[in-house]
Amino acid sequence: MILHYLASMKTREDLRHLLHRIDGSGYKAYKGLQGQYAYDNFTLFIDYVQGDPFASPSRLRLRLRNQFPEWASRNRSREVALRDFLARQFAQSIRRFAKGQRGSGKSGAVFIDQPGQEMLERMAVVLDNDELEVRIQVGLPAFGRRIAGQQAAAILLEELPMIAGHSLFPEVIDEGKLRAHILINEDADALRGQLEGLGLVAFVANGALLPRASGVDPRPLEGGLPFLSPDNMEVEVQLPNRQVRGMGIPKGITLITGGGYHGKSTLLRAIELGIYNHIPGDGRELVVSNPQAVKIRAEDGRFVEKVNISPFINNLPRATDTLRFSTQNASGSTSQAANVMEALEAGARALLIDEDTSATNFMIRDHRMQQLVPKEREPITPFVDKARQLYEELGVSSIIVVGGSGLYFDIADKVLCMLEYEPQDLTERAHEIALQFPQDRQGEGGKGFGGLSQRTPLARSIDARRGGREKVRAFATRSLQFGVEEIGLAAVEQLVDNSQLNAIGDALLYARKYMASRPLAAVLDQVMADIEAGSLDVLSQQKEGHYAVFRKLELAAALNRLRSLRVE
Q1: Predicted confidence (pLDDT) at residue 136 exceeds the cutoff of 50
Q2: Sheet order of strands, 234-238 included
Q3: E strands within 18-145?
Q4: CATH code, 291
Q5: Domain boundary residue among 418, 448, 478?
Q6: Would 520 be classed as within a structural domain?
Q7: 47-61, 308-322, 392-406: range with lowest mean pLDDT
Q8: Which residues of 115-141 are buried (b: 16+ CB within 10 A; e: fewer)?
């Protein structure tokens, strides 16, 4: 059977003859290329051919024997790092050998899912037992809508073997760089896995470089100041490949304070992205956070569907129901309350909040305002009165950047002050100030935190049809076009890769099969369990190369912002 299969498989020369025969034909003749072709050191699969040169590029796969040593994929962490490294090598090789645009539309372009600073598990390179599979896209070339056969032959028969040959085999790989890539990923996973046992929500290694080159350039800032933990917060951790010392942020309530431009938000940003591993040289390789830590912010104008925001907002005018609060256009405070409650519903274990992106009336209400507007006329209970309840009753920690109010001193377990990007532990001083200048305000938190949302999504409301077929498209990390709806995700700040949105869009469709009287949290858990058991490939019938892993928290965020969503 195997000999017959090999004998019947088309070859590279067969592909050359096909391209010669259809040269100059109408573009649809490219459909005849679909199939598989034996090359010298890999098999080429042409799975899907685009309808015209302006459409989404054609999907191809290269399968080859995995020749890398056993140590490179010994466990899940190492396998993910190997796949990530090879995707980066292949992308570099494309830039080196592919000649790019030749003809109309996307003609001549060769694409692989391009990794950034984060080392995400992605489907661009897959390890399947003893084989590697590389999933790419190619714009099959044309002039107008006539096939450019000679140019296609140059891409598929000459450039593609060169790209693969210089990126996918051990003999062309710098083993030292590969080993560093793999071992740092393994260590970061191990470090994150030890946080719970150490009683920490985050860890920032000594020597880490936290500042970025700019707001649009995520690479480390040249000449940035290396991080150094305060002595009394320093923790030493043994990892598989090294020992590391750094600042451990304990469970509970931690404030990050200090003057403007001294690094408060920079530290918080590093912590919020500590849910991901980072490549060697990024500076944040050993900055890790609880994997269920969520950045919370205000989000004016967002859609909210039947969320229980009553722990924070109650007694609204006109008897508006805040146990099942809905709106098409949330205010800053109601959106931030909904963001907290939705995150808790999806399993958040730590909330990360920056006052700069928060609604002021959601965060604080001082004594003077309490005197002017008594509690019976104020529907909002500020976060300062709920954070302690969140931790003591639900075990959910908070890390909060504050620079303009000392109201949080009374509830803080730790107070970090950033001074020229250096952290100082000023917990004792903050508590002394709280005693010296006691608050006259009354606590407004009530006797307990309050109830959480228990919602059941309706599958019929997850509708991506547009023009008679389902259409989902990701735009960077900003939004998803979902049928006729646009899901705005710019405020979901822990999304870092367009391929995460590609996967989330299809995961929303996939999740519908579990929406038969199941709570939202159970639906999310089942989708994630299926992905864990079968990889992101479960989300599509196609061999999709532009998927990257996401958390159930971001899947929930997308679902909750879908304006057609209806829940019971």
Answers
A1: yes
A2: 234-238, 243-250, 200-205, 287-289
A3: 35-38, 43-48, 58-65, 110-111, 125-128, 131-138, 142-143
A4: 3.40.50
A5: 448
A6: yes
A7: 308-322
A8: bbbbbbbbbbbbbeeeebbbbbbbbbb
- Can you give the pLDDT at residue 324? 95
Whether residue 291 is found in the same domain as residue 430:
yes
Could you tell me the two tokens for 555? 């899947």
Cα–Cα distances (Å) from 39 to 6, 34, 47, 53, in that order, read 12, 15, 16, 26
* Same domain as 228, residue 124: no
| Nearest partner of 513 among 502, 525, 523, judged by Cα | 523
Where does residue 560 fall: left (phi above 0), alpha (psi -120 to 50 degrees), or beta otherwise?
Answer: alpha
The closest of 303, 219, 325 to 491, measured between CA atoms, is 303
Same domain, 378 and 498: no
Q: What is the mean pLDDT of residues 338-357?
A: 98
Average of per-residue pLDDT values in the chain = 95
For residue 477, count other CB atoms closer than 10 A to its CB. 19
Statement to judge: residues 331 and 417 lie in one domain: yes
Using an 8 Å Cβ cutoff, are 142 and 103 in contact? yes
- The widest CA-to-CA distance across the chain, in whole angstroms, is 88
Residues 211 and 282: beta-carbon distance below 8 Å: no
Please give the sequence-ordered ranges of beta strands (E in DSSP) within 69-124, or none if there are none.
110-111
What residues make up the domain containing 413? 202-448
Q: Are 116 and 155 in contact (CB under 8 A)?
A: no
Smallest Cα–Cα separation from 566: which of 514, 515, 502, 526?
515
Question: SS3 of 464, please?
Answer: coil
Whether residue 140 contacts residue 58, with contact meaning beta carbons closer than 8 Å, is answered with yes
Give the pLDDT of residue 360: 95
Q: Is the pTM of this model over 0.85?
A: yes
Region 223-238: mean pLDDT is 96
| Range list of β-strands (E), 71-147 | 110-111, 125-128, 131-138, 142-143, 146-147
Residues 336/360, Cβ–Cβ less than 8 Å = no
Count of residues for the chain?
568
Q: Is the pLDDT of residue 430 over 50?
A: yes
Query: Residue 401 to residues 253, 348, 412: CA-CA distances in angstroms?
Result: 11, 18, 12
Give pLDDT tens digits for 450-471.
999 899 999 999 999 998 899 9
Of residues 298, 443, 304, 398, the one with CA closest to residue 356: 298
The answer to the question of residue 568 being in a domain is no
Q: Write the DSSP assignment of 75-89 as a string of letters.
A: SHHHHHHHHHHHHHH
- Per the listing, tokens 């309490």 go with 370
